[in-house]
Amino acid sequence: MEEIVPYAHQEQPDYVDNLLPGYRFCPTDSELILYYLKPKIETGEHPKCRIYEVNLYSHSPEELTNQYRPCDDKWYFFTPRERKYEKGKVPNRRTGNFGYWKATQKYTSVYHQYSATGPRVVGTRRSLDYRDEKGCKTAWLMQEYATNHPNLPIGSGQGGNKVCYELFTIEPNQTKPSVRI
Questions:
Q1: How many whole angstroms from its chain centre is CA 104?
Q2: Band of the pLDDT at 100, cuts 50, 70, 90?
Q3: Cβ atoms within 10 Å of 17's Cβ, excluding its own
Q4: Which long-range contacts (CB under 8 A, 24 or more apart) does 119-125 make?
Q5: Spatial separation of the C-alpha atoms in residues 27 and 64, rounded to whole Å
Q6: Which of 18, 62, 105, 125 has a CA 20 to 30 Å removed from the CA of 143?
Q7: Angstrom distance (rounded) from CA 77 to CA 55
Q8: 77 in the Ramachandran plot: left (φ > 0), alpha (ψ -120 to 50) or beta?
Q9: Residue 4 pLDDT more than 70?
Q10: Cβ atoms within 10 A of the Cβ of 19, count?
Q11: Spatial CA neighbour of 152 closest among 53, 44, 74
Q12: Number of H-type helices and E-type strands within the chain
């Protein structure tokens, strides 16, 4: 299992710690895709902000949120794309022995409004909620972001060695979880 780095051993301070009061890291959906996810996939460069690179599916949301610093009660993660079957398209969302992430809606298109040619689709977003090992819904919500048509280097597609990432945000649900009897 992948080891989580505790707060004390993370790079300190990061740029969020140096912001003046009133400024926050709160990117829109299209900004997350265009300025963070797409460059991560295309160049491998990690942004200088509180987006952590970790395999979400090796840990429960409680573990992740206890070990990483939030941005206004949201946690941001890059995670490698995993598939349930080697040649399939179905993502593997099981988290070891802890439970699983269940999709609660279809993929929705994310539009970038500030394009010279008008709004254009830059990626997709999907909401998921966390179910414990018994299948009961918990108070954790996650947004999954994927980019459309990343500019991958030649030879990095199927069978290449380039890792394709997805960006996730995790936050506690403000409503009470449903109880399954």
A1: 16
A2: very high
A3: 9
A4: 121/148, 122/30, 122/33, 122/34, 122/38, 122/147, 122/148, 123/29, 123/30, 123/33, 123/37, 123/147, 123/148, 124/148, 125/29
A5: 21
A6: 18
A7: 9
A8: beta
A9: no
A10: 11
A11: 44
A12: 3, 7
Find where tokens 């900004």 sit.
31
Compute the distance between CA of residue 148 and CA of residue 33 in angstroms, rounded to an integer: 9
Question: Rounded distance, CA 128 to CA 40, Å?
Answer: 22
DSSP assigned state of 62: H
pLDDT of residue 176: 52
Give, for 127, the enclosing helix (H) or strand (E): strand 120-132
Tokens, residue 65: 């949120």
- Between CA 137 and CA 179 the distance in angstroms is 7
pLDDT tens digit string along 66-79?
898 888 889 999 98
Who wins on pLDDT, 2 or 58?
58
What is the Cβ-side half-sphere exposure of residue 8, based on CA atoms within 13 angstroms?
A: 0
Task: Pick 81 or 10 by higher pLDDT.
Answer: 81
What are the tokens at 157?
Answer: 């597609």
